[in-house]
């Protein structure tokens, strides 16, 4: 877990990268994972007892958090839900016969993720990116 903090709250030389001004990495943010495609961090805000989960674009010069889930528990439930749906064991470059492409099924998945996570915008964008990925490879 400590290794995940490097480049976010901790500089590779060990110095503190956190700050209190807007756009700084907050001391209460703890990285729990990174996006496998983009490298953006997923992090919890430990100053909130619910430990909401956020992501933020890497390499923008400032951190603008986007809420992914209202709590760590609901984030983990979202991941479990996606895992149950998936028949893939690795990240894919292009869709295959196991890729969910049916618009009605994708709409159901999107609503379920929004319900589980308590967050709407992130999952709307997530599913939009999935649809575009499928369309780009048709």
Provide a short characterization of the protein structure.
The chain has 138 residues and is of the alpha+beta class.
Provide the helix percentage. 25-40%
Head-to-tail CA distance between termini:
39 Å
Order of helices and strands: EEEEHHH
User: What amount of the residues lies in strands?
Assistant: 5-15%
The helix tally amounts to 3
Question: What would you say this structure looks like, in words?
Answer:
The protein is an alpha+beta fold and 138 residues long. It folds into two domains: 1-69, no CATH class; 71-138, no CATH class. Helix content is 33%, strand content 13%. The protein is built from three helices and four strands. The protein has helices spanning 72-85, 103-117, 121-136, and strands at residues 29-34, 41-45, 53-55, 66-69. Strands 1-2-3-4 form a four-stranded antiparallel sheet. Helix 2 (103-117) packs antiparallel against helix 3 (121-136).
Reconstruct the topology from this structure.
Layout: E1 29-34, E2 41-45, E3 53-55, E4 66-69, H1 72-85, H2 103-117, H3 121-136
Antiparallel strand pairs: 1-2, 2-3, 3-4
Helix pairs in contact: 2-3
């Amino acid at each position: 877990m400590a290794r995940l903090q490097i480049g976010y709250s901790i500089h590779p030389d060990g110095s503190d990268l956190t700050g209190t001004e807007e756009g700084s990495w907050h001391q209460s943010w703890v990285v729990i994972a990174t996006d496998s495609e983009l490298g953006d961090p997923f992090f919890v805000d430990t100053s909130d007892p619910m430990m909401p989960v956020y992501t933020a674009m890497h390499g923008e010069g400032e951190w603008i958090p986007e809420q992914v889930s209202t709590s760590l528990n609901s984030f983990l439930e979202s991941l479990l839900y996606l895992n149950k749906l998936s028949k893939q064991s690795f990240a894919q470059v292009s869709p295959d016969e196991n890729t969910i492409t049916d618009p009605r099924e994708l709409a159901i998945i999107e609503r379920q993720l929004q319900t589980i996570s308590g967050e709407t915008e992130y999952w709307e964008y997530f599913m939009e990116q999935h649809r575009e990925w499928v369309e780009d490879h048709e």
